[in-house]
Amino acid sequence: MSALLEVKNLKVGYGKIIAVKDISITVNQGEIVTLIGSNGAGKSTTLRTISGLLKPKSGEILFEGNRIDGKEGHEVVKLGICQSPEGRRIFPRMTVSENLDLGAFLRSDKEAIEADRERVLNLFPRLRERISQRAGTMSGGEQQMLAVSRALMGAPKLLMLDEPSMGLAPVLVDMIFETIIKIREQGITILLIEQNAAAALDVADRAYVLESGTIKMSGKASDLAKDSAVTKAYLGG
Asked: Is residue 60 domain-shared with residue 173, that is, in the same domain?
């Protein structure tokens, strides 16, 4: 398996506070990899740094073998890394259709954009029904579907999902995770951050456990799901 993303000895801070302390992770082509950990463990900071929204204090980020740490956010998107952010961050006054268009704003391949639009509307038929509706008037679950779809409109090689199940009813959580598997089946590699550790470990190939900005454990997701320390800390066992 070839590494699509490699994070090496990454250190990220806000002022004097170091949020991520020397972590290294690898995401291979075609995998679903999850980062689990409690609030404040450094998961979102890691994603924001990969996305180019934060600059690391030290370490390297390689995508398809090339260094991308230090690149601006729009340059990272252009390379094929798209993120569905925590809290959805959709544009509430714009329609579903306009939000999807914004996801493809760096692209000029009109036919492929149209094909991707059809693909996300097939993944989330609810959005097709709401296509002309203002995004801010939709339910939380529908807004989450839109946030994921908008990221997919960037034609990602790597899709990063930050807390996709947060605040959703259990039936919608199941649907979001089923869709994550479908997205991977379409050839897109996924890096997933999720509070719902049980659901994340269920869909992921591999997992990293973050605690206070460092990686405490890593391995096959199925093995970590059975690990007593992980069960006790994150799975309510």
From this structure: yes
Residue 219's H or E segment, with its range, is strand 214-220
- How many domains does the chain divide into? 2
Band (pLDDT 50/70/90 cuts) for residue 181 is very high
The token pair that represents 191 in the structure block: 């890096």
Residue 55: pLDDT above 80?
Answer: yes
Q: What is the pTM of this model?
A: 0.91
Provide the domain limits for residue 118.
90-155
Q: What is the CATH number of the domain that holds 220?
A: 3.40.50.300
Query: Do 135 and 220 reside in the same domain of the chain?
Result: no
Which amino acid belongs to residue 231?
Answer: T
Alpha-carbon radius of gyration of the chain: 17
Contact indicator for 85, 144 with CB cutoff of 8 Å: no
Closest by CA to 210, choosing from 192, 223, 236, 228, is 192
| DSSP secondary structure, 71-101, as one string | --HHHHHHHTEEEE-TT----TTSBHHHHHH
- Tell me how far apart the alpha carbons of residues 16 and 149 are, in angstroms, rounded to a whole number: 36
Helix ranges restricted to H, the chain: 43-50, 73-79, 96-103, 110-123, 125-129, 140-152, 170-185, 197-203, 221-226, 228-234
118 with 168, same domain: the answer is no
Angle, CA of 139, 143 and 148, to the nearest 5°: 150
